[in-house]
């Protein structure tokens, strides 16, 4: 019975955390109203945000006040996963409500758009040319907080510092500083500083202020929502594209690696396996895509290189901005983009995909195995890779966990592709579109649209959600809830 009482107390704390996060979501819903002084014609949509904002703040406040619990113990990863899962679902529902209340999207479309925003995917079912500025800004705000991580934002401001399970459950496995709260604050400072810097650079490159704000957020969060239907290609500006390159690369880099760079530890920065693999992939795929695909579409060398490097970076960083349509790309180019989207960006960054760290680790494990054949039988060695500012010594269990994750990721990917095929889409388009959704990329071959089948939109919604929260967190959270519920029912 003592264990049962402990479970109840811990779930009370979980609900208290969820209550605080619900209040936070309500506050975030008010942020799009900041656009009203500049676009007063959008005031007619203010109630679409005020209603869900007040509902969430009241609901969160009631939960926080009514539930009494001890808060002097550290949350486990599984408990953190429960809070992350609940808060993200609440955030997505809250974020969909303004679109529904305003009559802009139906329920399926609104949940899809909100999921795409919070997971920093960038797939969209709205027509940017016909969408009011308040909703365009709202999409970017979702990507800002989704990129940093809702939990990281709250840990950096109001949540209790014992929440490493929370921090870890949202994909932040590297602590920048000794305390979780300090690490969360450091992430927010880096993230906000880069965003402001991006806004300034975009304005200098020729963007208007509203476009600059939205695109800086979208590029750094590797989200890819644009205020223009033609995305970055609308400006046809090399200056705008270079700023976007830089922001996408910053967004796809692990925050711990950023911390090393900002402290001037350049040698350590370039020792990081993720940084090296990222550089190799861009250096290899840019000329390959340019030569084997883009030479069929463009005759001018600068056009080839501009598009080659941009599309390579947008795919590997899982951002989803584009300069062109992919409908006229050949099979080589399409397969290259699919591979890059599946690999994805850095761990602990705003990017999605399998992640560079996992790919690099599996490559190194293969090298270590080959090297082992030439070493004496009783030789002892410590295998490590650089991650952030430290050496990470690799245990066999890390390699096994990584292999299992890749297996789970690819299994989910192929199930999704089969569902597309069942809907009548061809193989290449199916592989491209679901690689984009599951990798939280946002590039589209044209399948994703307001008139797409409802089943496809829900498939992509689930794919984006799984891809952002990385499968295991969700599975562990659900398994723990079921296990604890079963124990309580058996011990009434």
UniProtKB/TrEMBL annotation:
Localization: Cell membrane
Membrane topology value: Multi-pass membrane protein
InterPro entries (UniProt xref): Cat_transpt
Keyword hit for Transmembrane helix: yes
Transmembrane segments annotated in the record for this chain: 20-39, 45-67, 79-101, 141-167, 188-210, 242-262, 274-294, 332-354, 405-425, 462-482
One GO term (biological process): metal ion transport
Organism domain of life: Bacteria
Gene Ontology terms: cellular component: plasma membrane
Molecular function (Gene Ontology), one example: monoatomic cation transmembrane transporter activity
Pfam families registered for this protein in UniProt: TrkH
Keyword Hydrolase: no
Chief site of localization: membrane
UniProt keyword list: Cell membrane, Ion transport, Membrane, Transmembrane, Transmembrane helix, Transport
Family of the protein in this entry: Belongs to the TrkH potassium transport family.
The protein's name in its UniProt record: Cation transporter
């Amino acid at each position: 019975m003592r264990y049962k009482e402990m479970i109840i107390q811990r779930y009370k704390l979980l609900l208290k955390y969820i209550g605080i996060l619900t209040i936070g979501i309500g506050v975030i819903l008010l942020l799009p109203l900041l656009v009203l002084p500049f676009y007063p014609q959008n005031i007619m949509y203010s109630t679409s945000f005020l209603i869900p904002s007040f509902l969430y703040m009241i609901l969160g406040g009631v939960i926080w006040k009514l539930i009494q619990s001890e808060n002097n113990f550290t949350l486990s990863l599984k408990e953190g996963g429960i809070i992350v899962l609940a808060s993200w679902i609440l955030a997505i529902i809250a974020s969909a409500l303004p679109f529904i209340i305003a009559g802009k999207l139906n329920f399926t479309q609104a949940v899809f758009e909100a999921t795409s925003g919070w997971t920093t995917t960038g797939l969209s079912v709205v027509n940017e040319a016909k969408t009011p500025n308040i909703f365009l800004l709202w999409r970017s705000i979702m990507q800002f907080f989704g990129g940093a991580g809702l939990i990281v934002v709250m840990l950096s401001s109001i949540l209790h510092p014992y929440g490493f399970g929370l921090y870890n459950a949202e994909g932040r496995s590297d602590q920048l500083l000794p305390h979780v709260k300090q690490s969360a604050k450091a992430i927010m400072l880096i993230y906000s500083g880069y965003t402001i810097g991006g806004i300034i650079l975009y304005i200098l490159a020729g963007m208007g202020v509203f476009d600059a704000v939205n695109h800086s957020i979208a590029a750094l969060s590797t989200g890819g929502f644009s205020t223009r239907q033609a995305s970055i290609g609308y400006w046809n500006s090399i200056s705008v594209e270079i700023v976007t390159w830089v922001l996408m690369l910053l967004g796809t880099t692990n925050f711990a690696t950023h911390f090393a760079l900002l402290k001037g530890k350049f040698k350590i920065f370039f020792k990081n396996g993720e940084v090296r693999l990222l550089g190799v992939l861009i250096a290899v795929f840019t000329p390959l895509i340019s030569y084997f695909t883009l030479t069929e579409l463009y005759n001018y060398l600068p056009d080839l290189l501009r598009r080659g490097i941009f599309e390579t970076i947008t795919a590997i960083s899982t951002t989803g901005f584009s300069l062109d349509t992919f409908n006229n790309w050949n099979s080589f180019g399409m397969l290259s983009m699919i591979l890059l989207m599946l690999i994805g960006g850095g761990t602990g960054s705003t990017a999605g995909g399998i992640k560079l760290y996992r790919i690099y680790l599996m490559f190194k494990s293969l090298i270590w195995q080959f090297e082992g054949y030439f070493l004496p039988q009783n030789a002892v060695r410590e295998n490590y890779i650089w991650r952030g500012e430290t050496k990470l010594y690799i245990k066999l269990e890390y390699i096994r966990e990584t292999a299992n994750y890749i297996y789970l990721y690819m299994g989910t990917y192929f199930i999704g592709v089969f569902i597309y095929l069942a809907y009548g889409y061809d193989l290449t388009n199916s592989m491209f579109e679901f690689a984009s959704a599951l990798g939280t990329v946002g590039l589209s071959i044209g399948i994703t649209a307001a008139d797409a089948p409802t089943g496809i939109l829900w498939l992509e919604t689930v794919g984006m959600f799984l891809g952002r929260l990385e499968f295991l967190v969700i599975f562990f959270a659900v398994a723990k809830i079921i296990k604890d519920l079963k124990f309580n029912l058996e011990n009434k």
